[in-house]
Design a protein that fits this description.
This protein has 439 residues and is α/β, with parallel strands linked by helices. The protein contains 13 helices and 16 strands. The strands form 3 sheets. An 8-stranded mixed sheet has the order 3-5-2-1-8-10-11-9, with helices on both faces. The protein has a 5-stranded antiparallel sheet with strand order 13-12-14-16-15. It starts with a strand and ends with a helix.
């Protein structure tokens, strides 16, 4: 006997049909003792997420606009679930409390959190589990930052008295004021990880509408293979490039407690999905774990003779960028050259002013700007154990007639990042994938 924490996302709890699926999943394994639920998501294309409707109610309330019809839509959704499941939950009474709090001017966070709160009440009644509210247990400071250790202590103490429980995701409370505070969108993933850490779970299952991660975007690579196991480090590299079905902040609490995370598919429960572990546990033949990328970067290449002898040169570059509130993505460099890679949107129309500041404060011999650049990360702990990985990657791109505009490899040797033109993005990903996985 062990302990599993299972978190079910919005699509998994969208209606009574989906909730019956998750009941079958939970009852199929008695180790699934602590269940974290999101607010109901979309049931079909064109439908609305409950959280979106609640945020909209809050906006109407803030601007003194009628919100009764919107709130009634939310009420009807939950009443339909109650009737469908045949559970005894006082939905009318709960909405009477919500309406009264809205009349008194409740916060947007409180209103948005009611989707998870009400759904957890219904699911707890449906499963016959205890309901445990996260208000007062998940704690934030006055600036909205999670108080990790205080939260861990509060959750551990409370859940010790519940053998099985359903817990709403997404919110906690300000430790100073007691007012409800939410995470950013997708924060139910974080709640699940916090609960897993508190109860010392053997595994944290994150149930969604996909069967884990794939080695490449299936919209680009048809039939991309699934990733069965991935390390936290590898996931961090891929998530940075946008390849994630998991809120990245959810990784940290589970990593602290060395708890594996299993991404599973509610609609295909027999699929084993992807397991995320602290260390790489891939097979001996695994070279790359995954490929991911993003478009629309700008590269500013700066050349200055004897740059390497000019102390503080890169620091001055970063100081100038900070003055313009521009973050950098990568800084590949040579003896007399340094390139700054930035998300084009970060420039906010200030490119000419930024370049002028570089010219004035750095006195470079020359500068070039390359627009419409895409970054592609090839990630895998297995790359450091294999000879010729870089050669195979660059050969594949050359044979596909893709011009490489930038190369950056981290000292950890688990990723190789190349910059290519936007127009070559999809072709480059397919070429890299075929070089390592197309056998």
């Amino acid at each position: 006997m062990g302990i599993k924490v299972a978190k079910f996302g919005g699509s998994s709890v969208a209606d009574g049909i989906q909730l019956r699926k998750i009941k079958d999943i939970i009852e199929a394994d008695s180790d699934r003792k602590y269940i974290v639920v999101s607010a109901p998501g979309k049931r079909y294309d064109g439908d609305n997420k409950i959280t979106d409707l609640l945020y909209l109610c809050g906006t109407h309330m803030e601007h003194n606009l009628p919100y009764d019809q919107l709130l009634q839509v939310v009420t009807d959704r939950f009443m339909a679930v109650k009737v469908n499941l045949g559970v005894d939950v006082d939905i009318d009474g709960e909405f009477a409390v919500i309406r009264e709090n809205m009349r008194k001017g409740c916060s947007a966070d409180y209103l948005a959190s009611r989707g998870e709160y009400l759904n957890a009440l219904l699911v707890a009644a449906f499963l016959g589990y205890d309901f445990v509210d996260t208000a007062g247990l998940i704690k934030f400071d006055g600036k909205g930052r999670l108080l990790l250790e205080e939260t861990d202590e509060a959750l551990r103490s409370e859940l010790a008295s519940h053998e099985r429980a359903v817990i709403p995701g997404f919110y906690g409370t300000n430790a100073e004021t007691g007012r409800v505070r939410t995470f950013s969108r997708g924060g139910s993933d974080i709640t699940g990880a916090l609960v897993a850490r508190a109860v010392k779970a053997d595994i944290y299952e994150n149930w969604t509408d996909v069967s884990g991660f794939l080695k490449a975007d299936p919209r680009i690579v048809a039939g991309a293979k699934p990733i069965s196991r991935i390390s936290y480090k590898e996931l961090r590299e891929l998530s940075y490039m946008g390849a994630s079905v998991l809120h990245e902040d959810a990784i940290y609490p589970a990593k602290l407690a060395n708890i594996p995370i299993n991404i599973r598919n509610t609609n295909a429960p027999d699929d084993m999905g992807t397991i995320i572990t602290a260390e790489h546990e891939g097979g001996a033949d695994d070279v790359i774990t995954g490929i991911a990328g993003k478009k629309d970067f700008t590269v500013i290449a700066i050349y200055k003779n004897m740059m390497s002898n000019e102390r503080g040169f890169v620091r001055r570059i970063l100081t100038i960028m900070e003055d313009f509130d521009v973050d950098f993505e990568h800084i590949p460099s040579g003896i007399d050259t340094v390139s700054v890679v930035v998300d084009t949107q970060q420039l906010n129309g200030n490119r000419d002013d930024l370049m002028e500041a570089f010219e004035r404060q750095l006195n470079p011999d020359s500068m070039e700007v390359f627009d419409d650049i895409a970054l592609i990360a090839t990630v895998g702990c297995g790359m450091s154990r294999r000879h010729g990985v870089s050669a195979a990657l660059f050969t594949a791109l050359a044979e596909a007639e893709v011009n490489i505009r930038m190369i950056d490899q981290g000292s950890s040797e688990i990723n190789i990042i190349v910059g290519v033109e936007n127009k070559d993005f999809e072709k480059a990903i397919r070429a890299i994938y075929d070089a390592f996985e197309g056998k």
